[in-house]
Design a protein that fits this description.
With 338 residues, the protein is of the alpha/beta class. It has 2 domains: 168 residues, D-Maltodextrin-Binding Protein, domain 2, CATH 3.40.190; 155 residues, 3-Layer(aba) Sandwich (D-Maltodextrin-Binding Protein, domain 2). Helices cover 33% and strands 25% of the residues. The chain has a 5-stranded mixed beta barrel, surrounded by 5 helices. β7 and β8 form a beta hairpin. The chain is globular and about 60 Å long.
Length: 338
């Protein structure tokens, strides 16, 4: 096990223990059934919105916990909502919330790392695995082959309200890793905005986001041999135009991210043929996605969410192919399989 994976395992184990140790006694009794939870999704077309819709459909059929998918502009809106309604949620006056998080960013929220110092939320906990998120870049320009060529180019990234999919993810790699962050002409669009802009010739390259089946090589590194494009990436791929993959540089990922202050983003090797646009191996960034909630979420509700995620894992793939990559172990990454 690599040092970074050990740190990740320790962190997620601690997060899980904290979740159950801190749960308030007010939730000791069985929750009133049915019980509604609001899922704060990211914009339509994103992985978070896709997951929220699938959760809403599957839980409606198979659980007494009912999940309401609510589209939001992004993470910053969601955490602002949580801070504003934290006491009401703890008292049971408004719905408890759940969101798609990541082991890559949980420390920012729990510790209140910059720029989230005013949104410090130690009550935020990870409860279940979702999938692995993988990102490369795509272009219609056959001469644009390296991320080092992005200086002076128009590049599509996430909107500013989804900082974990834009600024906080881009800056370590293109800044400390390649030393060109300030030279790139960043276009802060959502996934669908990126799709529309590149199809209309307004961008040189965009992020392509995939769900992935993650595996660990004998040397402890990560790889995937099965990818599923998120909706916007799928539309770009299926546009009928020749799309070229721009991989990331493994060393720039490793040298760019400092886990003590940056996102926990790992290099992952995409194997040739993992998806039809990959004609050769390519390096990408990866993050382990999770379901997150407040530690005031009732224990029996948390247990029911984990049960449904595990028992009906195959049902998610009926909604979107990317959910075939959901991990068999429903618990947060790094915890014992049992």
């Amino acid at each position: 096990m690599t040092k970074s994976l050990k740190r990740l395992a320790v962190f997620t184990c601690i997060a899980t223990v904290v979740l159950f140790m801190q749960t308030s006694n007010v939730w000791a009794a069985k929750s009133k059934r049915p019980y509604e939870v609001t899922f704060l999704a990211t914009p339509m077309g994103s992985a978070g919105y896709t997951l929220g819709t699938a959760l809403e459909i599957i839980f409606a059929k198979h659980s007494w916990v009912k999940i309401k998918n609510q589209e939001t502009p992004g993470a910053m809106y969601g955490f602002g909502y949580i801070k504003k309604n934290l006491k009401k949620m703890e008292e049971g006056k408004v719905n408890q919330i759940m969101g798609m998080g990541s082991s890559a960013v949980t420390a920012f929220i729990v510790e209140g790392r910059k720029p989230l110092t005013k949104l410090k939320l130690p009550q935020w906990s990870t409860i279940a695995n979702v999938s692995t998120s993988v990102t490369v870049y795509g272009t219609f320009d056959k001469d644009l082959t390296s991320t080092r060529q992005f200086a002076g180019r128009n590049i599509g990234t996430g909107i500013k309200s989804t900082i974990f999919r834009s600024i906080l993810r881009d800056r370590p790699y293109f800044g400390r890793g390649l030393n060109i962050y300030g030279d790139v002409k960043w276009n802060f669009l959502d996934d669908m905005g990126n799709k529309d802009a590149i199809l209309n010739g307004k961008l040189d390259a965009v992020q392509l986001n995939f769900g992935a089946r993650m595996a660990v090589a004998s040397d402890g590194s990560f790889y995937t041999d099965l990818l599923f494009p998120q909706p916007a990436a799928q539309q770009i791929i299926d546009s009928g135009r020749k799309l070229y993959v721009i991989p990331l540089e493994r060393d720039a990922i490793i040298n760019g991210y400092d886990f003590s202050k940056d996102m926990i983003v790992h290099p992952i090797k995409i194997k040739k043929g993992a998806y039809r646009i990959f004609s050769e191996d390519a390096w990408a960034t990866s993050a382990f996605n999770t379901l997150n909630c407040l530690d005031s979420m009732p224990d029996d509700v948390v247990e029911e969410i984990i049960r449904v995620m595990h028992t009906y894992r195959d049902k998610f793939a009926n909604y979107h192919a990317s959910f075939k990559a959901l991990p068999e172990n429903p618990y947060p990454v790094g915890t014992p399989k049992k």
